[in-house]
Amino acid sequence: MVMFDCSSLSDDSLHRLYQILRSGNSMKCLTGYATSLAAIAVYFDKKGYTPDMFDLEIVVSGAERLEPSTKALLKKVFGCTVVSRYANNENGFLAQQPNDSDEFILNTAHYFFETLRLDADEPAPYGEPARLVLTDLYNYAMPLIRYDTGDIVIIEMSGKGSSEKKVLTEVSGRKEDIIYDTRGDKISPHFTALCFRRYDRLPQFQLIQESLEKFTLKLEGARGLYDDEDFQDTIRQLVGADAVVKIEYVDKIPHLSSGKLRKIICNYNVN
Prior knowledge:
Elements: H1 11-21, E1 29-33, H2 34-46, E2 58-62, H3 68-78, E3 81-88, E4 92-96, E5 104-106, E6 112-116, E7 130-136, E8 144-158, E9 165-174, E10 179-180, E11 186-187, H4 189-196, E12 204-209, E13 214-220, H5 228-239, E14 244-250, E15 264-266
Parallel strand pairs: 1-2, 2-3, 12-15, 13-14
Antiparallel strand pairs: 3-4, 4-5, 5-9, 6-7, 7-8, 8-9, 10-11, 12-13
Helix pairs in contact: 2-3
């Protein structure tokens, strides 16, 4: 096992990672945060690296959502299976994608899962963004009963007959990632993420709601890729035509102390 410092993903740093991963060094698995893997995929693709240059057999993403575009780019660069895990610090691994699907198989061997509506402690219907609540009776130090993870997910039924099971089709953010449209109605992180998926060449973004009408969009490594007006129109379609949208280009979007990147921040105080 080789630990690699991802606190600075400069070109020099990513070149050192290439030297670690290149063929002949017996590296079979690459695992890390989705944001770090996205930066790696973009850089390696830009340099023209191809699967024959590596011995990797699997890439495992964790903690944050791995966007479909990043997953496809990782497959292009490394030519291997790419899967995403869903976990938290309080419990551990809650779900994981199988090799051939984007759905998350729930870890029902260790947890009992419930999905509740965003605004009420009532069961949420399949296909609707919902809060994920779990019961963990195997944590003998502190059993957690009906613990609200704070995450927003979409749950569906998959398979037929005896193989039918609940799966997560979306793990789209946390409750604090909810923003509001200009009328004051809540918008789930799921719908915000969908709006930005078409920007498949965008390395990283962070959308900040400053007030009911004012929004700031920070873009990392995106100068010249898309028009400002395009981003502004996308956000106005999401939150309202009267929204005031400021675009900021930055060299680096700050990460949390945990290493994660918050893509959505709401500074608007509802009260």
